[in-house]
Amino acid sequence: MEGVEMNGVRSNLDRSPRSLAEEHVLRGLEQLPAGYDVLNGSRLQIPEVPEGEAAMSYEPDFEVRRPDGLSIVIEVKTGRSLSMVNLSRFIKFDELINAAGKRFLVLVWGDDDFPQRLSAMPEFKGLHIKTVRSSSDVLQAVQTEFPK
Predict the structure, then answer these.
(1) What one-character-per-residue DSSP string does 75-99 give?
(2) Each residue of 80-139: pLDDT tens digit?
(3) CATH classification of 4-145 is 3.40.1350, yes or no?
(4) pTM for the whole thing?
(5) What is the residue extent of each domain of the chain?
(6) What is the spatial distance between Cα 91 and Cα 118, in angstroms, rounded to a whole number?
(7) Secondary structure element (H or E) that encloses residue 106, with its range
């Protein structure tokens, strides 16, 4: 992978993230242990071809790869931008990403506990949604999402 190294974490982030929330999440990702790779969405296209619907693709915000090859695809949202439409789409993306042997994590930047209430709803129970308020929250959320 081409790119820069931040505290031992390799990254292909050759441009600034698209939102302030993504910038905050990136600061947490920069604290991952040496050997982790952080990729941004512009190089990650996840095709989605739902039956009976128009084909579309999904460009996640980040992908984090552990040195052993395990990956987490990360979507960054704010509480205000987390809509029911997005959540419904995330269920489909979660299935596709899991089928590819990766995990899907939605990080919601801010103080809103709405994401936790949503993830408790039966239809969204399978989604991994975490509210993060600091770089250390991001680091903890990503590290705990990886299996031991």
Answers:
(1) EEEEGGG--HHHHHHHHHHHHHHHH
(2) 888 888 888 888 889 888 888 999 999 999 877 766 677 677 888 788 989 999 999 999
(3) yes
(4) 0.80
(5) 4-145
(6) 13
(7) strand 103-109
